[in-house]
Amino acid sequence: MIRRPLSIICSTAENSFVSSDLAKKLRLGLEELATIREQLTPLISLPAASAGVIERAAACAMLHSFYTEIEKLLKLIAREWDGQTPSSEAWHRQLLNQMAASTATRPAVLSPPLVEVLGEFLAFRHLFRGASIVLMRWEKLMPLLAKVDQTYKQTEAEIGTFARFIEAGAE
Fold first, then answer.
1. Which long-range CB contacts under 8 A does 157-165 form with residues at least 24 apart?
2. 21 pLDDT exceeds 60?
């Protein structure tokens, strides 16, 4: 018989109640993220010469939505699984770091390479919220737009892996 500390048993039992619900929420969030990615597709392939202020505004808003959707999923995991979300002024970055670290009840949700690229989307989001769209240049947006597909695939894979982890624990 394997003896486990009571704290792990209670923690596992506690988390199994939220597991299936959390996994469903994560899968729905990933579907939303896929929709945003699909909506970004025409902008990703847009030639720079065709990018006017309307296209720049659309790209900025969609990149913002893309990262925000990912962050919502991470906050959901932090709140419902970890039982805590960062609350300092640097909470956005701390959330990424929290999801990159394993805990006593879960493996790391995000890999270091994904955290690095998500940091670029986070930096853009902060810039977008504080700068005028008129100042946004297509040449500066293109490198981030080019990372959307791979970032989506990696995010979907890593959060999907976590959803399967919690579903396996709920069985």
1. 158/109, 158/110, 158/111, 158/114, 159/26, 159/29, 159/30, 159/73, 159/109, 160/26, 160/27, 160/30, 162/26, 162/77, 162/106, 162/107, 162/109, 163/22, 163/23, 163/26, 163/27, 164/23, 165/106, 165/107
2. yes
Say what the pTM is: 0.85
Residue pair 105/81 in contact by the 8 Å Cβ criterion? yes
Using CA atoms, how far residue 35 sits from 28, 46, 128, in Å, is: 11, 18, 21
